[in-house]
Design a protein that fits this description.
With about 400 residues, the first copy, chain A, is of the alpha/beta class. Chain A is about 40% helix and about 20% strand.
Chain lengths: ~400, ~400
C-alpha cells in the first residue's frame, strides 16, 4: 500500500515495527499516527483535522523480507507540527511511542522547509580540515584525563599532546566543572598551553572542552569559549538535550563534537529505540555535529562493526545540501588497531586514542608522536593500496 | 562484601546487574567504577586518585535471591564529581554505561551536600492543595486537545473545563508552539478564559501550558508564563534535558508537571535502563516535579500496575526533607475507572482524563462535571471504607 504524499509539506520517518500483539500492522501504524499527533480517538476528530492533514499519515507499509512479523512503516507528519524546534520534532517522532513496544526509528527524510531547524554541521569534514590544515589522512584526537587532575596538570598534559602533533585535544567527557579543575581555570590554562605550542610548531592543534551543565552555567561557559578563542566544544546531546546542541550550532561559530553518553538505552533492544546510524549518525549530524564520537567495535562497548558502519555512513552520505560530519570511533582504541580502523573508516574519520597513550609510558609527547606517525604511515599505505592502478 | 563508606561525602547508586559474559560480578562492577569516573585503565592512576577517592567505589554486592546471574550492586561516587549539576550527575551514574549491557538503575541515596542540586518539588502535594484549596480527594486534571485547534478554540474548551470544576487544565503534551495556536497567543487566551471562570465560580482552576522548545525560545516562554500569572507548566525532562527542568525549579516559582515523553527506552529492557520508580518517580521528583505523569496500567501503554506502584511510591515516600510529589496516572483513562484508580493510588494523586471527556459528548462542562463528581463520590466512599472502625 502506497499513498501519494500530499502537497502540504511533510517529513517522513521510517520505523521498523514488530507486530506481535494480535493487532494488524495497519492498525498499529494507524494508532501511532494518532498517538504522535492528535492523541485522541479518531471519533473526536473533525473534518478540519483531516482537511488540514494534521494526523500522522501512513505512507507505506512493507514486510521486511524473511521476517514473520516485522514491517518497515513510513509515516509522514506535517512540518509545522514540530514548531520548527528540535525538541518538538523528537516529541513528534518518538515522544509517547517510546513508551510502547517494538517500534524502532530507522531513518528519515525532511523537506527544505526544515533546513533551518536542522542545518547540519557548520564546518563539516572540509571545514575542519581547513581549520587544521590537515588533508589526505584521518584526523588524530586524544583526551585530557583522568578526572581528578588539576587545571595545571591538564594544561601540561595538553602541551605534551600538542607537541606530539595531535590534531584535536578534547576533555575526557567526564571532566566538566569539578572543583579539581574548574571549567574557567581549566579551559584558560589549556588553551594557553596549546596556543603556545602552536605558535612554536606552526601547527593548529585544537582544544575542545567538555560542556555539561544546567542552562545558566552552560550559556556562560559557551560565551567564555568564544571569548578566549576556543574553536570547538565536546557535548553530549542526550545529557543536555538535543535542542541545546542545535541552539549552539545556530547561535555560535563553535565546532561541535558530540559524545554518545546517556544515549545507550536507544540501542539496548533490537526492536525498540533507534538505529545506531539514525541517532548517532543522521540525527546528531542534523543538529550540528561536525564530529560524532561513537564506541568502536572491539573496544570497551557493545557495538558491532556493522552498527558502527551505519553510523559512519549516515554521517558522510549526502543529506540535502548539508555538510558531511566526521565519524570518530573511540572507546578503548589502541595504536595497534589504526591500520584496521583505516580499512573500516577510510580517510575521513577522526581517530581517538585516549587511555592507550597514557598506558604507553610517561613521555606523552613521544607516544602522541607515535600515534600521529602511525596514522600518517597507515594512511599512506592505504592510499597506495586503494589508488587507481596507474598510480601505484 | 560490604565496605564502610568513607568520610568524604559520597552519593550511592544501586544497580541491578546481570552478569552473563563470563566476567565475575566483582570485575564487572569494578569496570563500571572506573568507566564512570576516571575512564582509564587502573595502571594509569596515581596514588592521589585513590587518596582523593575519585573513582567509583563498590560499597556492596549481593546476589538477588533466586537469581542465577543477577546482582544488586551499590556503587558510591564523590559528590563533587557531579559538578553540582544535574546533567553531570546523570553522566556520572549512567553516561557511558548506558552503552554497555545489563545494567539497570534501581535507586539512589544522596547526602545533604547535594540538596541544592536536587531540591525536590517547590510546592509538593500540600503546596498544590493549598494553591487549589482542594483537600481530601484526588485532584482532577484534563487536557486541551487535539493539536490543530486554534488558540480561540482551545480557550473556549478551557472555559468549559473550568466551568465543569476541574482542578488543573494542561495542554496536550503535543501542543507547543505550532502556527495553529502559537504559544504566546494560546496561553494568554487560555489563562484569560480560566481566570474569568474562576472569578465567577470562586474556584482556583490552574492552567499548565506545555513548554518544549530550544533554549532561547524556552526561556522567553518561561518569562512570559510568570508575567501573565501562570502558576505552573507541563514539561518533558527527557526532551529538553533534566538540567533544564531542574533550572526552572531553581530559578522560577512555577509549579512543574513532568511528562514521560521520550523516556520510554529506559524501560524497554528489563535488564538495562532504569526502573520506572527511579526515573519517573525519584529522579523527576528530585529535579522538581510537583506532579509526575505516567502511563497508567490498563491504558494505551505497557506499564504494569506493579511498575506504576513503584512510581507512585517513589514520589510520595520520604526522601530527605523533600516534599512529596503527586503521581498522575494517565494515558487513556476513563471515568468508569476512577474507583479502581483510587484503590490503587489513594487520595494523593492527580487523575488525568483527556480524550475520554471528549468522547463522552459535546457538552464539555457537563462531562467535566461528571468527572469531578465521580472523583468526589468515589473518594468519599474510599475514605469511608478505609476510615478507622469507630468512624464508620
Amino acid at each position: 500500500m502506497t499513498v501519494t504524499i500530499s502537497s502540504r509539506s511533510r517529513f517522513e520517518i521510517d520505523y521498523s515495527i514488530t507486530c506481535r500483539n494480535g493487532q494488524s500492522i495497519f492498525d498499529y501504524a494507524h494508532e501511532i499516527c494518532l498517538e504522535q499527533t492528535v492523541e485522541v480517538p479518531e471519533e473526536c476528530l473533525t473534518k478540519d483535522h483531516f482537511d488540514n492533514e494534521i494526523p500522522g499519515k501512513i505512507e507505506k507499509i512493507s514486510q521486511i523480507p524473511d521476517s514473520i512479523d516485522n514491517y518497515l512503516v513510513t509515516i509522514s507528519f506535517p512540518c509545522d507540527i514540530c514548531s520548527y524546534s528540535v525538541p518538538q520534532f523528537l516529541n513528534t517522532i518518538y515522544g509517547n511511542i517510546s513508551l510502547k513496544n517494538n517500534i524502532k526509528i530507522i531513518s528519515m527524510r525532511i523537506p527544505d522547509e526544515l533546513n533551518s531547524v536542522f542545518p547540519g554541521p557548520q564546518f563539516g569534514i572540509e571545514g575542519l580540515r581547513m581549520l587544521l590544515g590537515v588533508f589526505r589522512r584521518p584526523l588524530t584526537c586524544t583526551a585530557l584525563k583522568p578526572v581528578g587532575l588539576s587545571a595545571q596538570e591538564l594544561a601540561s598534559m595538553a602541551a605534551q599532546f600538542a607537541n606530539g602533533g595531535v590534531d584535536i585535544i578534547k576533555d575526557d567527557h567526564g571532566i566538566t566543572n569539578q572543583p579539581y579543575a574548574f571549567f574557567e581555570e581549566r579551559i584558560k590554562r589549556v588553551i594557553d598551553a596549546v596556543h603556545k605550542v602552536n605558535s612554536k610548531t606552526g601547527r593548529k592543534t585544537l582544544y575542545f572542552p567538555m560542556l555539561n551543565d544546567e542552562p545558566e552555567v552552560l550559556s556562560k561557559q559557551i560565551s567564555l569559549c568564544s571569548e578566549i578563542g576556543i574553536k570547538g566544544i565536546l557535548i553530549a546531546p542526550m545529557l543536555v538535550g538535543c535542542g541545546t546542541v542545535a541552539s549552539i550550532r545556530k547561535t555560535t561559530d563553535l565546532a561541535i563534537m558530540t559524545h554518545p553518553s546517556f544515549a545507550g538505552t536507544f540501542f539496548s533492544s533490537s526492536e525498540h529505540g533507534a538505529m545506531h546510524g539514525f541517532l548517532l549518525g543522521t540525527f546528531f549530524r542534523l543538529i550540528g555535529a561536525d564530529i560524532s564520537i561513537f564506541p568502536n567495535a572491539g573496544g570497551r562497548f557493545r557495538f558491532t562493526q556493522a552498527e558502527c558502519n551505519t553510523i559512519s555512513d549516515s554521517l558522510r552520505k549526502p543529506f540535502g545540501n548539508r555538510k558531511s560530519s566526521f565519524p570518530a570511533p573511540a572507546g578503548g582504541m589502541r595504536i595497534d588497531r589504526i591500520g584496521e580502523m583505516i580499512e573500516h573508516y577510510g580517510m575521513d574519520a577522526v581517530f581517538i586514542i585516549g587511555g592507550n597513550l597514557l598506558v604507553q609510558g610517561n613521555n606523552l609527547t613521544n607516544t602522541t608522536g607515535m600515534f600521529v606517525e602511525t596514522v600518517q604511515k597507515k594512511a599512506s599505505e592505504y592510499q597506495l593500496a586503494h589508488a587507481p592502478f596507474q598510480n601505484r
